[in-house]
Fold:
Amino acid sequence: MSALQGMLAEFAGPGDVLAATWAARRAGYVALEVFSPYPIEGMAEALAFRTRLARVTLVAGLLGGAAIFLFQGWVHAIEWHLDIGGRRSFAAPAFIVPTFEITILCAALATVFAMFVRNGLPRLHHPLFAVPAFGRASQDRFFLFIGADDPRFSAPTVRAFLVSHAPLEVHDVPR
Amino acid sequence: MTRGGPDERWIDGDHDVAAINDCVVDTVQSPRTRNVWLVALAAAALGLGALALAVFGVFWWYVGIWGVRTPVYWGIAITNFVWWVGIAHAGTLISAILLLANQTWRRSINRFAEAMTLFAIACAGMFPLLHLGRPEFFYWLLPYPNTYGYWPQFLSPLVWDFFAVATYGMVSLVFWYVGLVPDLATMRDRSTGLRARVYGVFALGWRGSARHWERHQFAYLLLAGLATTLVVSVHTVVSFDFAVAQLPGWHATVFPPYFVAGAIFSGFALVLTLLIPVRVWLGLRDLITDRHLDQCAKLMLTAGLVVAYGYAAELYFGWYSGDPHERELLASHLHGRSAPLFWTVIGLNVALPQSLWWRAARRSTAWLFVLSIGVNLGMWLERWLIVITSLEHGLLPTTGGHYWPTFWDWLTLAGTFGFFAFFMLLFIRFVPVIAMSELRELVGDRRPEGA
Structure:
């Protein structure tokens, strides 16, 4: 077991880190992660990553909307029926406003909740925060990380590989 | 490989990524603005105190202390409610619709406008709850199982309103917060000690991982799509409070689009009123340029034209309906008791904004500032005209009445200004007012000197 969590290469620009990421993929590394102060276009493709968050939004919205619609029908037609001039108690058109609002609310809250859960956040402590230079990942520096759990990981070769892509610096990430 | 390129034109000067960070982070707890901020906060705290007193008054003596009496059951509390909800709409339009329309200029102002939205919704939400008569039972609007075997009346526009405003408030809050998380991480990494810990907790451990960004951006886009529907629906539901009733001046099919346009109109006016001084005060003129104000002015003019159409349609349908009560109200607006108010509204909301067709007017900060205040006043008076003048008029001359706000009415309105100012000032002091992570993307290709 290595004493390292992985290795981190620091770059000055988004183009550099994108090129290095593609090279790492071609070299067969799989435990890759990139950190940047803003989203880099094309990076998800370089990491062969796709999100399926939209399904959560759709399902949560449909379930929330259906639930509140049926609930209103149950309240007015069954549980607490009020005879208002003989009007139909299951007044579907009048139920639309709360149905719409709850659809949007459930979809939005579920999307945000799922986004944070799938991202593994909140997680206030992380080995990467032990690298002082990593503080600039949220400001103006771009990092490529190769994890020690990669089957091809060995510290000297990974360091040599990262250095060959002209980073500003290569950092060890302690476990 | 960034989406920079031509969009760089929205940032003046030659700021690179690091310079943008410095520019925005320096506004947070800046020693330069500290004294002015403290004075402003103290003034706003007075307003907050006034609100506490006004709310206490309503809880202690109930709505009788307001000027409302038969037949004017709704006083300026409802005028204020409609006005504040309207203010909120510009923030959501800027953050949601302009995001979907790929308008990069929104990135300099969306955070600020969204904060405005949040506090405006909070101000708005107070009024209908205080107006309930028994405000301590406001939670009866929520459908929860209770020993009375009681449920809310889902056929009532008041309940719709509660659902609409509550959803709007919550979605606006998560939308704002999701956009804020990466910037809070920047604040965490640039602070030390207790401040770093506090920002760190709110940043949730954001690391800027590419996979996280992908999900974050996708969620943000989905939220924008959802919030877009709220831009058009919330004031629609508010307009149902009026349009569903049979009263002359309320019962009109043009109300939903007319209310939505009015909301966006007054919202942009307040964005301008606040951004013009704030960008100078915080030293952000390179990031919030005159061209941004120009864009806001164009959108304000567009919304204003729809509002003008609303006025025209309301007048036309009042006349064309042939309904004697509608026609009487119309005559009152055009040349009767309510004519001074009506023509003031037309002057402020229709005539003056036409100046924005000229580029010189849109580029004149002083004129935009004056005009935006005029529009906000005009929109408040318009809601007075709709809520109060219609109720005063009623259906028959014998059932007419008269309303004038009492001290407590005015105190509540002034109190919400204090509340709004207080929280906006806290926001400006402790949170980056500009979405740094979004602006960085615009200048990603600019390399720092010697790098």
Q: What stands out?
A: Chain B touches chain A through 67 residues (CB under 8 Å). The domain at 5-442 of chain B is CATH 1.20.1630.10 (Formate dehydrogenase/DMSO reductase fold). Residues 82 and 383 of chain B are 7 Å apart (CA to CA). Chain B has one domain: 5-442.
